[in-house]
From TrEMBL:
Location of the Metallo-beta-lactamase domain: 34-225
UniProt-recorded name of the protein: MBL fold metallo-hydrolase
Keywords assigned by UniProt, alphabetized: Hydrolase
Organism lineage string: Bacteria, Pseudomonadati, Pseudomonadota, Alphaproteobacteria, Sphingomonadales
Pfam families with a match to the protein in the record: Lactamase_B_2
Length: 254
């Protein structure tokens, strides 16, 4: 199993419109962050997590034309508004893309993008949608799911397992306890939200995330969903061993 970080940025990306790099060095390409997303693969299965506004560019950069399934963590714009570009994946596959989401997320997507799932004006549907249950298998990848707090809503926390390896993905989370914490214990790699150093009401700040990492003890931790205050080199120099910032295009073989 391997994972590619397609995007490691917050909802506005880095730089923000206005060429706002904040504290990030614009000369370091690892600071150029598109909206957060990952691609999880084995030799026979490929799963895309979220369809943000940068999905087309992300899949082109990854040289990926097809996926076996898409999982949506929740319905926020930075995780869904590239959904129209699944139409080209549909054309490449020759059949609708399989989609999975928690029921409230699925209902929101079908309401906002009905033509994607039902077709319109003579155009066929390009995506199917099924329940993202607490445990499921897609191809040879086993997946466990838990609803994690994200301000006033929840996002789907994900654990992927294949070939004796485990990967956790916790984006858009601001609290962790109980079943959510157990989802992320004993991982080979944990990719986890660390928006910025200052407190945020719906995302984990850096100190909070480091505390979670200490609690669940993954063998490797990778920080994602970072804003323009989080310069790659500065942050990497401060992090404990086994913890690193993500960057767009980072690939990890588990």
């Amino acid at each position: 199993m391997k994972v590619r970080v397609l995007g490691s940025g917050t909802s506005s990306g880095v730089p923000r419109i206005g060429n706002d790099w904040g504290a990030c060095d614009p000369a370091d390409p690892r600071n150029a962050r598109t909206r957060v997303s990952i691609l999880v693969e084995t030799a026979s299965t490929r799963i895309l997590v979220d369809t943000g506004p940068d999905m087309r560019a992300q899949l082109l950069a990854a040289q990926v034309a097809t996926v076996d399934a898409v999982i949506w963590t929740h319905d926020h714009a930075d995780h869904t508004h590239g959904i129209d570009d699944l139409r080209q994946v549909y054309h490449e596959l020759g059949h609708p893309v399989r989609g999975f989401a928690r029921p409230w997320t699925a209902q929101s997507l079908m309401t906002r993008f009905p033509y994607v799932f039902a077709g319109a004006g003579g155009y066929p549907p390009t995506v199917t949608i099924a329940d993202l249950s607490d445990a499921l298998t897609i191809g040879d990848i086993s997946i466990r799911v838990a609803d994690q707090p994200h301000g006033s809503i929840t996002s789907a926390g994900l654990r992927f397992e294949a070939d004796g390896k485990s990967l956790g993905y916790a984006t858009d989370i601001n609290e962790m306890a109980g079943i959510v914490q157990s989802l992320y214990e004993d991982l080979d790699v944990w990719i986890v939200d660390a928006l910025r150093e200052r407190y945020h009401p719906t995302h984990a700040d850096l100190a909070t995330t480091l505390g979670w990492i200490e609690a669940v003890k993954p063998r490797r931790a990778v920080l994602t969903h970072m804003d323009q205050s989080m310069d790659y080199v500065t942050l990497a120099a401060r992090l404990p061993d086994g913890i690193e910032p993500a960057y767009d295009g980072l690939e990890i073989d588990l």
